[in-house]
Design brief:
The chain has 374 residues and is α/β, with parallel strands linked by helices. It has a single domain, classed as 3-Layer(aba) Sandwich (Kinesin). The strands form 3 sheets. Strands 1, 4, 5, 6, 7, 10, 11, 12 and 13 form a 9-stranded mixed beta sheet that branches. A two-stranded antiparallel sheet has the order 2-3. The chain has a two-stranded antiparallel ribbon with strand order 8-9. A hairpin with a 4-residue loop joins strand 6 and strand 7.
């Protein structure tokens, strides 16, 4: 028998059909780490000091936000290899333990941030070079200890410009596929935010990966200060594990996302995201909120893509010449630290509630048994 909809039912059905799909799931990060780096330029020209271990003081700041915000503050005397060895091992090992991990470098254009990420060849390696070297080193060890598994490493890199509202595939010149289409971010209600049509290049050696990294660095380090702060680079190092002799994935794909995040516009006159707006997006992602601020913005979707599946996210805050920008960075770190403590407290209280229902339950059972005996 054919079902006939009445007028109100038809109206409700039409409204349901026009209703937008639910937001994609967001997972709260199980572990968050907040670090900061203070260079010699920050001390001499920016008025930034480290008065107490793991605290940052900004001269002339209207308010101090840095108390207990950072787990680690690397001062001007910290060697580059010490920073990399402190930050990277947990992230890289997490990838080989079956987890997605994310490293986010937040700050304006400065010599300290460029050295942190891209190094100062040939004297010291940056986070990118050290991550590539570590991933290949562990892969070689796993190939020896797990001969039944074949490992493959792939690399992709995109850059988003706020002012041009343009997403650029930085490795597209090396993609020989004639069918390739424009890269885009898709927010799937079930799978979450993901990149589509990006050039994911297979890299069989550290030298090849470093060659592609130079392409990324060439786009980034030559930018002027205004362009730098309103553009953002996302590099993904993906590890695929296949069963030997087949193309069958064993354990799926795990990746390390390294994000060179700018500060956004100085003000909202252009209608683009400012530093406080970007901070609100990051805070919502850390808290696991379903509805993100500016969720239609490409940067919001890219950050969601990088952080949604991540089980370990490390922030490295750097500083520049502008005092107000530095204050915004430290204020955001303070908010993230509070969100981290709040999330941990909620998890602990939930675990206590789940693990400690026994006394009330046992007393109820005793009362019931006594009544039955009477």
């Amino acid at each position: 028998m054919e079902r006939v909809l009445t007028a109100p039912a038809a109206t409700a059905a039409a409204a349901a059909a026009l209703k937008p799909p639910p937001p994609s799931p967001i997972r709260t990060n199980s572990k968050l780490r907040l670090c900061a780096i203070v260079s010699r330029d920050d001390v001499t020209s920016g008025g930034i000091t480290v008065p107490v271990a793991n605290q940052v003081h900004i001269a002339g700041a209207a308010k101090s936000h840095s108390k207990n915000a950072f787990e680690n503050v690397f001062g001007p005397d910290a060697a580059q290899d010490r920073i990399c060895s402190n930050v990277l091992p947990e992230l890289v090992q997490g990838v080989f333990n079956g987890q997605d991990c994310t490293f986010i470098a937040l700050g304006g254009k400065s010599r300290g941030k460029e050295c942190l990420l891209y190094g100062a060849p040939p004297s010291s390696a940056g986070i990118f070079q050290a991550a590539i070297t570590s991933i290949f080193k562990i892969t070689d060890e796993y190939r020896t200890s797990k001969p039944d598994t074949r490992y493959q490493i792939r690399m992709s890199a995109v850059q988003y410009s706020q002012r041009e509202n343009q997403l650029t595939d930085l490795l597209s010149p090396f993609n020989s596929d004639p069918r390739r289409r424009a890269v885009q971010v898709v927010d799937d209600p079930r799978a979450g935010a993901l990149l589509e049509n990006e050039s994911e290049i297979r890299v069989d050696s550290p030298d090849l990966a470093l060659f592609y990294l130079n392409t990324v660095a060439d786009h980034r380090v030559v930018e002027d200060e205004e362009t730098y702060r309103t553009s953002h680079v996302f590099v993904f190092l993906s590890v695929y594990a296949y069963r030997t002799g087949t193309n069958e994935l064993e354990g799926g794909r795990r990746r390390l996302a390294i994000v060179d995040l700018g500060l956004g516009e100085r003000n909202s006159h252009r209608g683009e995201l400012t530093m406080p707006a970007i901070g609100s997006i990051l805070l919502a992602l850390v808290q696991g909120q379903k509805h993100l601020p500016a969720r239609e913005n490409c940067l919001s979707q890219l950050l969601k893509c990088a952080m949604c599946s991540s089980r370990l996210t490390t922030f490295m805050c750097s500083f520049a010449e502008k005092t107000d920008d530095n204050e915004n960075v430290v204020q955001l770190a303070s908010k993230l630290a509070r969100a981290k403590r709040s999330t941990r407290k909620n998890k602990d209280s939930l675990a206590h509630t789940l693990l400690d229902p026994a006394p009330s339950l046992s007393s109820s059972l005793k009362e019931c048994s006594c009544m039955a005996l009477k």
